[in-house]
Amino acid sequence: MTVKITEDMKFSPAYDYIDNGVEHGVLSPFETKEVILKKGQQIAEGFKPLSCDIKMLKDVPVKLRDGVTIYTDIFMPTTDEKFPTLIAWSPYGKSAGTAPRYKNLFNMLGMGNQWNSGLTKFEAPDPAYWVAHGYAVCNPDMRGIAHSEGNTTMIGSQEAEDGYDLIEWLAAQSWSNGKTALTGTSYLTFSQWYIAAEMPPHLTCINPTEGLSDGYRDLAYIGGIPDTNFIERLAVNHVSATGAKREDWIKEMKAYPLASAPLWQDKVADPSKIKVPAFVVASYSSTLHTMGTFRAWRELGSKDKWLRIHDRQEWPYYYDEANIEELRRFFDHYLLGKDNDWLDTPKVRYSLIDFEGHDQTDFPAESFPPAGSENKRYYMNGKTRALQAKPDAVDLPVKYQAGGLPGRASFMMTFDKATQFVGYPKAKLYMEVDGYNDMDVFVWVQKLDKMGNVLSEFVIPNHGAAMQDFSQEGASALRYKGSWGRLRASMRHLDNKVSTEDIPAYSFDRVEKLAKGEIVALDVVLSPIGLSYKAGESLRVVVSSKDELGAVMPGTPGCTPDNHGVHILHTGGQYASYLQLPVMTTPVVKHE
């Protein structure tokens, strides 16, 4: 049986699968067979020649517990030894490493394609590297994708059960050493939280590298504000050669607008159930993944877990040669039983960003936030627009026209000494709206240099003119602009079971519209930071009616705020709005 929650799902026809050996990669034409890919072979022009012989089991059928058959490609050494398997679970085509859409994407990012063999499923490990080091790599087409049977679902218990079944099937194969791991970035991390929580007996360890952990809060309704555009972009990956249907999140958002709906509850990961060793990788900069990755890390039930916070976008990080070698130390220890030095790796390594070309990475710590991080409130002064240590005794409201010019209000402070912030920031805002019954509020913490210029940094290799255009008011996952958060006022209710004084969390189970003259407290959770300021530099917090960071990726619009009338931000007395920041009481210094 498929899982019961599928009865609540809304489906639409999948997109047509074009099986021409181009659209979905040169190895995509369907044929169940075994083939030897020879050392030195180039899968397609522009890709790295293979460094060893590889046995490819192509379009292998795997029957799931409900009788549905999915197909997978498996790459492995040509030796007779038994080996562990790395699994890349996602809806992205198993043979699409040479597909034009991915070649074009990596060229746009400035990475090119020479870093991989062309066997690499999107956001997944490169089989050529891992096979050369004694691993098998499994690239499945999940249910409903390409020639796999069934209808495609997107995150939740159906994918979790399917992933469980694939893991147990792999472990039972004659060539397997009985150990498996999940790895990959973005969607391939999103799926790891769910599959690993099912606790497949032969799942040995996981490597979540930046991925959301809650379908409602991290994707469909960030801050309670609906955003369908990026979801529509994801849906085009749901292609079928069998006439399958795809789960349609846009229809579901209309049918189930609150997070309390069973469908959305099924898309909340429960990392506390995960007990296998986990090497988690995060960044401060991903407007799509940062919140969910850190949340999952905090909740993770693994006794042996590591967190590394880097300073790049996930794809340049994941495919960096040194980082691949480090990941192999983790896998070698748990999957090959090698007595290496992995267990000496610090439990947490965090970064300090300065937006001026001098980021410092891999500060060791026992936790995040690290020892020495202390939350401090900086109160907003409605008259001077300063951030200050103590609140004003009298409230002085600041007003701006929602959606107008400037459509925002900001507050600043300039540092008289070097200052570092590492941890979880938040904003506490007392607000009302004149002329409407709701408001979408966007908060952005910036760094300004000594001349007052707003700073940001690219987290991809391409810094060219076109990328400047895309990322100036968009492509926010590719250019880090500072900590951010957003909240719809009518969705402000806190979830008392999850929310803490330092990290707000919302129930999103009710709509509480604003009455005329009603002042409400908005606890806005902001993305984690590791940010350094020198003396003379300034911090600016922007409270806006617009999503000023813009959409996640180029070519995709961001959310459309539901804002009208005048927003009023209160700044003193009993309505002392403030920005809370995790300041390091003793500045950390990198020792090489």
UniProtKB/TrEMBL annotation:
Domain Xaa-Pro dipeptidyl-peptidase C-terminal span(s) in chain numbering: 328-580
InterPro entries registered for this protein in UniProt: AB_hydrolase_fold (IPR029058), CocE/Ser_esterase (IPR005674), Galactose-bd-like_sf (IPR008979), Xaa-Pro-like_dom (IPR000383), Xaa-Pro_dipept_C (IPR013736), Xaa-Pro_dipeptidyl-ppase/CocE (IPR050585)
SMART domains registered for this protein in UniProt: PepX_C
Superkingdom classification of source: Bacteria
Gene3D superfamilies: 1.10.3020.20, alpha/beta hydrolase, Galactose-binding domain-like
Keyword Hydrolase applies: yes
Record-given protein name: CocE/NonD family hydrolase
Organism per entry: Secundilactobacillus hailunensis
Lineage: Bacteria, Bacillati, Bacillota, Bacilli, Lactobacillales
